[in-house]
C-alpha cells in the first residue's frame, strides 16, 4: 500500500520505479484515483515505491513538480521523470506503464 509522506526527506535515487500520487482530500476525482493506486501498490508489492502526497500539506513538493491539477501521477525511475499523468488514470494504463519500467 502507498505511504503518505508526512515529512520531506532528501530524495534518494531509486533503481525501481517511484509512483507519486499528488492528491487533495477535497478532490472528487482523487477519491476515484486513490483506490486504483492502492490496489496497484498491493499488486506490484516492493517492485514499485508508491508515495501519496497531499498537495495541501506539502505545497513545496507540489510546487517542485509544478502540480496544478489533482490528481496528478508522476512516475520516476533513476531520479528522472518518466511519465506525468493528470486526471484519473485507469488501472490497466498505470500498470502497463509501471511494468515496462520493472
TrEMBL record:
Keywords carried by this UniProt record: Disulfide bond, Electron transport, Redox-active center, Transport
UniProt cross-references to InterPro entries, sorted A to Z: Thioredoxin, Thioredoxin-like_sf, Thioredoxin_domain
Entry's Gene Ontology molecular function annotations: protein-disulfide reductase activity
Residue ranges of every copy of the Thioredoxin domain listed in the record: 1-102
Coiled coil location: none
Keyword flag Disulfide bond: yes
Cellular-component GO terms for this entry: cytoplasm
PANTHER family, per database record: GEO12009P1
Protein name: Thiol-disulfide oxidoreductase ResA
Source organism: bioreactor metagenome
Species classification: unclassified sequences, metagenomes, ecological metagenomes
Amino acid at each position: 500500500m502507498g505511504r503518505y509522506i508526512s515529512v520531506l526527506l532528501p530524495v534518494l535515487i531509486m533503481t525501481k520505479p517511484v509512483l507519486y500520487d499528488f492528491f487533495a482530500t477535497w478532490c472528487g476525482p482523487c477519491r476515484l484515483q486513490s483506490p486504483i493506486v492502492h490496489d496497484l501498490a498491493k499488486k506490484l508489492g516492493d517492485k514499485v515505491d508508491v508515495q501519496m502526497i497531499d498537495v495541501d500539506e506539502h505545497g513545496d513538493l507540489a510546487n517542485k513538480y509544478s502540480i496544478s491539477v489533482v490528481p496528478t501521477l508522476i512516475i520516476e525511475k533513476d531520479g528522472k521523470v518518466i511519465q506525468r499523468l493528470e486526471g484519473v488514470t485507469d488501472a490497466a494504463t498505470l500498470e502497463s506503464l509501471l511494468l515496462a519500467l520493472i
